[in-house]
Every structure is written in structure tokens, then in C-alpha cells.
Amino acid sequence: MSNEVVVSIRNLTKRFGKTVVFEDVSLDVHRSEVVAIVGPSGAGKSTLIRCVNRLHPFDEGSLQVLNHQLNKGSQFPSKQVLNDIRTRVGMVFQTFNLFPHLSVLENVILAPIEVKKVPRKQAIQQAMELLDMVGLSEHANKYPKRMSGGQQQRVAIARALAMEPEIMLFDEPTSMLDPELVGEVLDAIQRLAKDGMTLMLVTHEMQFAKEVADTVVIMADHRIIEKGPSREVLENPRTGRAQAFLKRVLNPVHATELEREVAVGHGGGR
Amino acid sequence: MLQQWVQYFPDMMKGVLITLKLTGSSLVVALVFGFILALMRLSTSKTLNLIGTWYIEIVRAVPVLVIIFLAYYSLGNILTLSGFTAAVVSLGAFYATQYGEIFRGAILGVDKGQTEAASALGMPSRTIMRKVILPQAFFTILPPATNQLSNLIKDTSLVFTIGISDLMFQAYSAASNNFLPLDMLLEAGVIYFVFYLVLSKLLARWELNVQRSRS
Amino acid sequence: MHIVGLYISPIAIGALKDLILTILSTLLSFVLGILFAAGRLYGHPVIKLVIGWYVEIIRGLPAILQLFIIFFGLTQIGINLSPLTAGLIWLVAYGTGYAVEIFRSGIMDVAQGQREAASALGLGRWITMRKVIVPQAFALMLPALTSFVVLQLKNTTLLYLIGYADIMYQARLGADATEAPGTLYLMAAAAYLIMSLVIGRIGYRLEKRATAYR
Ligand SMILES: Nc1ncnc2c1ncn2[C@@H]1O[C@H](COP(=O)(O)OP(=O)(O)OP(=O)(O)O)[C@@H](O)[C@H]1O
Ligand SMILES: [Mg+2]
Predict the structure, then answer these.
(1) Which stretches are transmembrane (chain C) (predicted)?
(2) Domain count for chain A
(3) How many contacts does A have with C, using Cβ atoms within 8 A?
(4) Is the pTM of this model over 0.80?
(5) CATH second-level architecture of C2-213?
(6) Under an 8 A CB cutoff, do C122 and A95 touch?
């Protein structure tokens, strides 16, 4: 992690119509820093990272991404700025969003060829290297729908990396996957972190956040309720709200026991 | 000009009455026959299935006007059908294919788990259809069924070709009296359009209600 | 059988005419339909409104009424069109009204996630449209487009009512001359049936190919 701030979020507020998604959120992300964002559903985590690559506009505050200062309000930045941000900030979605009508390879080379005007040959070569990195070079000619969720998500990572981004955004990349497929995707992300990529990652994988992230941010009740070095935040949260949230996600035992009781009770009744 | 619109308005209304009578009768035939077609196509009997499929494929591929002519000039001659009956038979026969496919799609669209759950509870298949499948399929049926009804109303205009004095016929004969075809056709057009608007407004409201009740 | 032999070639010629009209009007309707759909989705509010009403009127009025307005109605204001011209104008006007909605909903039905993924990769609007949305929308639309062509073919029947010499016209001539309307209208029905089935078959093939990725 260097001292250079690549994403600077200052007092950011975002609303959809009248509903406030989050309010007065501030966060600095440094080059090569790995920031994990955790928190209950509906806290606004996805919306926050979608503001960073300007999939959503924001209402109040200021947001600097790389060398661009973004204005509040729904007016889009200039085409060049938007383009520059979109090419230098990659994103991986919860639902993969691969282009189903294109093969794996075509998914990966589309943006480099169309946006960066990379020659096709070179784009293919680079794509194959990336697919190799995520362990999928043999599947280059398959269509996405023929692959497992874990494989699709790794293709999505390769597709984003093909633009050679400086920052990668991940929105719950593993939450749609079967448990046995989560590991392969997390491995690919961990590799990126080791290689010095700047990452902003929304996740529910607390163990992974603790091991891989430098910083953990907890969002709840429309704001950031806690942020700091990952171990500190996850092991000794200061606020009561954060403690409650972490207790629930880290110790699901209580919930499981309850379920078991209900199941047994039901079974006994029959 | 306006005076001509007013003068022929009563005739047009007589035509509307016939158009509506024709629509209603054809709709009943189409719904009943369509439901039978859907059941045939869903049945496990290969023969019934094939007959249903062929009927739908063939009848859908032929223009309504041709069906009307066939019914009136050939079948009608043999069985001495009145123009009105021939029209009801042909519109009913054609729209049965549309409703048949709507019913079939909606019934298939209800999750298979529903049938399984109901059978597991010991319900006979007739009860499952009536109490479990159809109520759920109803809301899927409503929008396309309304749409077809609006198509049916428009297609009734074709029967003026076999001399039934519906709205279209009235407009046409008014035009040949006063030599103002544009005015008379537009007057009929406004009336047809009102029916169309009413149906599509109803449809929009239903869809909104369904969405609300499901969210 | 004698009658069939006598009238098979006029009906076949009528069928050919109908087929040509169908293809021509379909192509023109698709071009206009795509333009109108783009206008309805992305145009100025006034354009959206005008196209919206156009679509409503085309969908709201009986086909035969529309055709009669163009052929008979316009004579009242001094515009005299030949049956062929009036017929073609109507087929295109009518087809466009339906094609707009097919293209519009096809474009809208491509999932929002696809747009976002394309945006996140920095793909511009035009490239997103060309490389991501349209290919998928096309696959989604194919069944509707196939029915559209069949609908246009069936619509050509109505041109007989304004005196254009198509299948129905020939069948009518034959029916009056031979007093065997059953045979002749069945021949007409068969001609439409064959053409519709062929169109349906082609559409099905295309659809299979376009959706191979699923
Ligand atoms: N396009 C939208 N229009 C209106 N409201 C929205 C929109 N997107 C999100 N919201 C609302 O914003 C709030 C935050 O949503 P967001 O998806 O950012 O939450 P999240 O923290 O990512 O939750 P999850 O863990 O469920 O993904 C939610 O209440 C949601 O209903
Ligand atoms: Mg989310």
C-alpha cells in the first residue's frame, strides 16, 4: 500500500428519490490497498462502489477517482472522463453479467478491441494469458451458460482485467456461488491483491476479509459505522452496532441451533 | 361535414350493436374451443395431442378472410348457414387457436412443484386443475387474452364482406351514399378506437393490480 | 380435380405476388421500425409521444379500415392511388406500427446487468448497442419477427378487397366462374398455409442458430 490516494470519498450522500441509501460517507483508498466493505443487506454497499465507477450518480459531497474530480448531481461527467474512469476502474458483479451470446474468449477481448483499439491478435494473446491465470484457458471457446458459476465469475474477472485497470471493484463476487465454488474465485482475487492491485470488495466472507484486506469498512444504517485495519475492526469492533452485526455473521451457531430445534420439534410432532 | 357525422351516427350505432354481438358470440366459441384445444395439447394421448397441434398450426397459418369465405361460401352453402353463424364459426375457429395457446402456455407456466405438492396431498387431477393451476394461471392469461379480444373486435370488421351489417359495413354504405369516404371511415375509426382504448386501459389497470398484489 | 388444374397457375401467380409484397413490405417496415423504436426509446419527448400515438392508432384500428382509408378515403381529398400503391403503403404503415413494438421490447428485454457490465468496461453507447444489446435482442425477437412476417403475408389477402389481383382475387374469379367455391377457397387456404409454414420453418431454423449459446 502506498501513500497515493486513488479514491477519495468525502461526505458522500446518495438517495434514490426520497429514500436515503447512505449519508455522509467518507473513505480514502490508497494505491494497492485492499478495502473490504461489509454490512447487512440494504446498507448501501453496492451503491457505494457503483458510485466509484459512476454507474450511479451521487447527491452530496465529493468524490475523486484517480485524477478525476466527479461532480454531484445526475449530470454525467464528460465522455473522456467517464471513459477514462471506466477503463481504469474494473468491476465484477454479483451476477457475473457475462455476455451470453459471446464465447469466453470473445467476452474478454471485446472491450480491449472496441475501446482501447488493441489489435485483435494482441488482444487474444493477452486474453489467453489472463484466462490461464484464472485457470480457464481450456474453456476459451465455450459459451458462458455452459459453465459453472465459479468459472463464469473467473471469466468475469479476466474480462475486467483485460482492460488493465488500476482499481478493481468487486460486488459480492461469491455470494451467488455454491459453497464449493467460492474458494476458486477467492483465490483469484487474493492473487490480484498480492500483485498489488487496488481492490474495493463488498463481501460477506469475513475470514477472507480478515486475511486479505488491509482495511475493513462496516456499513449499516445508511452510514459507515466503523473502519480501520481489518483485524482490529473484525476482532475488536468498538461500536455496539458493529459488534451486533459481526456477532450475527461470525457466530451463526445460535441461529442454526434454533433451526435444528424447530426441525426436531416438527419431526417429533408427526 | 359534422352534420354528415351526426346524420350517420345512428346507423353506425346499429352497426356497433352487431359488431358487439358478433364479438361476444365468437369469444364464447373461441374460449370454449380454445380450452379444449389446450387440454388436447396437454393430454398424454398422442393422438389428441397431434390433432390439437395440427389444428392450431394449420388454422393459424390461414388468413381470417379466407376462413370466413370458406365458412360462408362452401360450408355455408352445404349446411345453409346464415352469414352471422358462418362469421361466428370462422372467427371462433380462428381465435380458438390463439386462446388455446394462451391457456396452454399459462398452465405450463405454473410451477411443476405445484402439481406435485397437490398430488402428494391426494388431490385428483381435476381438482388440481381447478383449485391449484387455473387460479394461478389466471393472471398470466388475463393480459394476452384481453389483447386477443381487442384483435377479435377489429377482425369482426372483415365480415362486412359477406354482407353482415356491422360497423364497417355501415361506414362503407354511408360513404357510398354521401361520397365522403374519408369522413365516414374516420367516424367508424373513432368508434373502433374507443373500444381499443377502453380495453387497453382496463388491461393496464389489471396489470398494475396484479403487480401490486404480488409485491 | 379438373378445377384444380385449371386454376392452379393463376393462384400460384397470385401467391408469388403476395410473397413479393410480403418481403418488400417487411424489409421496409423493419427499417422504419428500428428507426422509430430508437426514437421512442431515446428521442426527444415530442418524438416519443408522436411515435407512441402512431403505434396506438395502427394497433387500435381494424386493418381493413386502415386500408380503406388509404384507398377510398383519400380520394375524397383528391388523392387517387392504384390498388398496388395503396396496398404497399398500407402494408408498410401497418407493419411499421407493429415492428416498432417488437424492436422496442426486444431492446428493453436485454437484462439491465448486460448494460451495466458493458458500461463498467467502458464500452460506448453505440458499441454496447451493436455488440451487446442487438445480438441478444435479435435472438429474443426472432419468434416475434417470424410471426410478423406471417402476419404480413396474411394481411396481403385484404388487398383483394381493393381490387389487387392476388390469391384471393383469383380464387374469387374461379369461384364465381365454376360455382365450386369450396375447392377454390381451399386452394387459396392451401397456398397461404404452405407459405406460412415455410416462413415459420425458416424462422425456427434461424432461432435455433441465434440461440445456440443458451
Ligand atoms: N435503482 C434503485 N432504485 C431505488 N432504490 C434502490 C436502487 N438500488 C438500490 N436501492 C435501494 O438502496 C438501498 C441500498 O441498496 P444496496 O444494493 O446498495 O445495498 P447492499 O448493501 O449492497 O445490500 P445487499 O447486501 O443486499 O446487496 C436498498 O434499500 C435498496 O432498496
Ligand atoms: Mg449489494
Answers:
(1) 20-39, 51-75, 81-100, 132-151, 184-204
(2) 2
(3) 68
(4) no
(5) Orthogonal Bundle (1.10)
(6) no
